[in-house]
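Lab meeting, item 3. Inverse folding demo.
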């Protein structure tokens, strides 16, 4: 015997279970992450910065990757002059994923792709990121104090993957002439999922910031660390 409405309830119910399984659990002891340092260096005709972090990827991202969903970390580097004006801005994204077949972690950065056997190795890699380009050396004036500001934004699930996941759970209902109630529930659930998975990009609580000590160009050593 078929219970009216039962078929429609199965898909949303299963999606809700999946949603809350992927969201960070409250009350758990989470590994905190932060930017710990920003150290300027000269590399040829570039000002570069070695960025120190701790706890990256964090516990929520680790759970995401264990479930087969990649996470990502964004870095934004600003060169500030003595009046705190931004002279240059650079942005970099690192995508981190666990290969369920080969059982290794992959870190895809702006210029390279690396593999690591354990999560601790990944965290060690992010303990000293770079050095990352900040600005051309020739824009620096001798005797002027500068500061490098680093902003880090962590995405538990990489934004592109989060959008695809929301569409997959909600389903692409365009052009389908099924039950209107089912379409409404699916669309509503999809919006809820995208809100939860993408809110990190709009939530200032998830941004970590660090600044270098003020430096003058003549004080910065030549050569990569």
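The presenter then showed the designed sequence:
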């Amino acid at each position: 015997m078929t219970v009216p409405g039962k078929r429609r309830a199965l898909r949303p119910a299963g999606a809700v279970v999946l949603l809350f399984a992927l969201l960070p659990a409250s009350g758990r002891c989470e590994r905190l992450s932060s930017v710990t340092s920003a150290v300027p260096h000269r590399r040829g005709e570039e000002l570069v910065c070695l960025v120190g972090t701790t706890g990256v990827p964090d516990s929520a991202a680790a759970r995401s990757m264990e479930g087969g969903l990649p996470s990502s970390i964004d870095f934004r580097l600003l060169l500030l002059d003595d009046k705190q004006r931004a002279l240059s801005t650079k942005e970099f994204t690192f995508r981190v994923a666990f290969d369920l077949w080969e059982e290794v972690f992959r870190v895809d950065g702006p210029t390279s792709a690396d593999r690591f056997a354990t999560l601790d190795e990944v965290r060690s890699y992010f303990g000293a990121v770079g050095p990352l380009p900040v600005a051309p050396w020739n824009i620096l004036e001798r005797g002027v104090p500068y500061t490098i500001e680093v902003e880090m934004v962590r995405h538990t699930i990489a934004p592109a993957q989060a959008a695809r996941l929301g569409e997959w759970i909600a389903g692409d209902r365009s052009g389908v002439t099924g039950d209107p109630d089912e379409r409404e529930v699916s669309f509503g659930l999809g919006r809820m999922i995208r809100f939860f998975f993408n809110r990190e990009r709009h939530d200032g609580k998830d941004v970590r910031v660090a600044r270098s000590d003020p430096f003058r160009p003549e004080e910065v050593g030549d050569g990569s660390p």
